[in-house]
Specification:
The complex is a heterodimer of chains A (about 160) and B (about 325). In chain A, helix 1 packs across helix 5. Chain A has one domain: P-loop containing nucleotide triphosphate hydrolases (Rossmann fold, 3-Layer(aba) Sandwich). Chain A is about 35% helix and about 30% strand. A 7-stranded mixed beta sheet of chain A has the order 1-7-6-2-5-4-3. Chain A is globular. By secondary structure, chain A is of the alpha/beta class. Chain B is of the alpha/beta class and about 325 residues long. Chain B folds into 2 domains: about 130 residues, Nucleotidyltransferase, domain 5, CATH 3.30.420.40; about 130 residues, ATPase, nucleotide binding domain (Nucleotidyltransferase, domain 5). Chain B contains 11 helices and 10 strands. In chain B, the strands form 2 sheets. Chain B has a 5-stranded mixed beta sheet, sandwiched between helices. In chain B, strands 8-7-6-9-10 form a 5-stranded mixed beta sheet, with helices on both faces. In chain B, helix 9 links the parallel strand 9 and strand 10. In chain B, helix 4 packs across helix 11 and helix 8 packs across helix 9. The chains are: A alpha/beta (about 160), B alpha/beta (about 325). The interface between A and B is medium-sized, with 29 and 36 residues.
Chain lengths: ~160, ~325
């Protein structure tokens, strides 16, 4: 499915809607160039799941964990990495454990990260940051296909 | 009173560092083995490479710290080590080494927060800091404004909502093709250019709080680059200068607002971005006419080092705040 998003506020609202179809151990990949709005979308998801604290870019630390009473969100950012680095991080450990995992720049983990996921791709229109964003959401795996259908009813 | 000698170890990012500091003030040695050259080819710190390099360096760097100080291992009173925040794989190298050393020497282990270390760097060089003070912490991973009652007690007044200042420097530098690390690269390009030829936003400057946001500035800079490029009018140095100016104006004005609101006479700066010359001089300039004194560590103590860790460790040592040998490393912040 594709949606046009006109500002930061709308991007957070979209995150909130996506959050409604996501469960505890789900996996979301977020693609899109620098400044596209990936972290903003994650903020929307985290807020809808009840997280009140800061949701910031994990580029430096590579990972932020948002702990709530009944769940946790693992927010990864592989912007600085290449595939060889992913092993070293112990990402698999986090993916096997409890928690909703949201991964920015998943390209670095191609071949290592599980293929089944919700794939969100945010692109600029006409290479212009001041214009709207085109957000395309795809399912990889049947489990996520159902979530897309659910999401389509919400949007 | 007997002198207290603390060994500090720091491996949270791309520097393997060790230092011996006497009584929390006097640096007897300060060894830093930087990996910046290695990481520059990748455009940033690569964790796998960082951890491996730390393992190769750590014993040599610690040995050198003792040799430079003219001391034996047995001479130290405690081992202080950075255990958060940073890259976990990297932190664990220093942490494991420090634990082994503390255990074998039968000395206490002290756990130091990397950012608290950066703030403490000011105490290593300045004796006339008046508390309470406002402290601006700006680095690759963090941007926050603190109100400090003393060196051990502070509250967070505000922090970044999205990107850290140093992260914005790195990403914009990469986008403009200026290289890594982004801070020095932008500063250098900016010196050849002129701010104000185009206008980038001073984000959150009109807000009456101490929150920061640099993601929007990053995006605006990239957009400006694309537009100028299309028009055939791109002068990278001018754009770098305007970006730097937009970013530091916000840092300086927010610090000043906090200083005047809380009536403090000292503003401290800490973290790698505090090494930025334009930031330092604008802060000096803007405080000149007021009764506020600005403190920043010298350039070598702004960037990651272990003297600041040993220094902050001293504060814990004299309060008997020892860490357990089960101490773990943590990637994100627990207290700042």
């Amino acid at each position: 499915m594709q949606i046009l998003i006109y500002n930061e506020n709308e991007m957070e609202r979209l995150g909130e809607k996506i959050a409604r179809v996501l469960d505890d151990n789900d996996l979301v990949y977020l693609k899109g160039e620098l400044g596209a709005g990936k972290t903003t979308l994650v903020r929307g998801i985290a807020r809808a799941k009840g997280y009140q604290g800061r949701v910031t870019s994990p580029t430096f630390a590579l990972m932020n964990v948002y702990l709530m009473e009944n769940m946790q969100i693992n927010h990864f950012d592989f912007y600085r990495l290449n595939p060889n680095d992913i092993y070293d991080l112990g990402v698999e450990d986090y993916l096997e454990r409890q928690g909703l995992s949201l991964i920015e720049w998943p390209q670095a983990g191609a071949g290592i990260l599980p293929p089944e996921a919700l794939l969100v791709d945010i692109s600029l229109i006409d290479d212009d940051y001041e214009r709207e964003r085109r957000v395309s959401i795809k399912a990889q795996g049947s489990q996520y296909q159902r979530k897309i259908e659910e999401l389509q009813r919400l949007c | 009173m007997k002198d207290i000698l603390i060994l500090g170890i720091e491996t949270s990012c791309d520097e393997t560092a060790a230092s011996v500091v006497k009584n929390g003030r006097h640096i007897l040695s300060n060894v830093i083995n930087s990996q910046v050259q290695i990481h520059a080819q990748f455009g940033g710190v690569v964790p796998e490479v960082a951890s491996r390099q730390h393992i190769e360096n750590i014993a040599l760097v610690v040995d050198q710290a003792f040799a430079d100080a003219g001391l034996e291992y047995q001479d130290i009173d405690a081992v202080a080590v950075t255990n958060e925040p940073g890259l976990v794989g990297a932190l664990l190298v220093g942490l494991s080494f420090a634990k082994g050393l503390a255990w074998s020497l039968q000395r206490p282990l002290l756990a130091v927060n990397h950012l608290h270390g950066h703030i403490y760097a000011n105490m290593l060089e300045h004796e006339d800091i008046k508390f309470p003070a406002v402290c601006l912490v700006v680095s690759g991973g963090h941007t926050s404004l603190l109100l400090m009652q003393d060196i051990n007690h502070y509250q967070v007044l505000g922090a970044t909502r999205d990107d850290a200042a140093g992260e914005a420097f790195d990403k914009v530098a990469r986008f403009l093709g200026l290289g890594y690390p982004g801070g020095p690269a932008i500063q250098k390009a900016a010196q050849e250019g002129q701010a104000g030829k185009m206008k980038l936003p001073r984000v959150f400057l009109d807000r009456q709080d101490y929150e920061f946001s640099f993601s929007g500035l990053k995006t605006a800079t990239m957009n400006m680059k694309k537009k100028l490029e299309k028009a055939g009018e791109l002068q990278v140095c001018d754009l770098a200068a305007e970006f730097q100016q937009a970013l530091i104006e916000v840092l300086v004005e927010k610090s000043l607002q906090a200083a005047s609101r809380y009536g403090v006479e000292s503003i401290l700066m800490a973290g790698g971005v505090a090494a930025n010359q334009e930031l330092r001089s604008l802060m000096e300039q803007r405080t000149e006419s007021r009764k506020i004194k600005v403190f920043c560590p010298s350039l070598s103590l702004c960037t990651d080092n272990a003297a600041m860790i040993a220094g902050m460790g001293y504060q814990q040592f004299i309060r008997n705040c020892y860490a357990s040998l089960r101490l773990n490393a943590y990637p994100s912040l627990s207290s700042l």
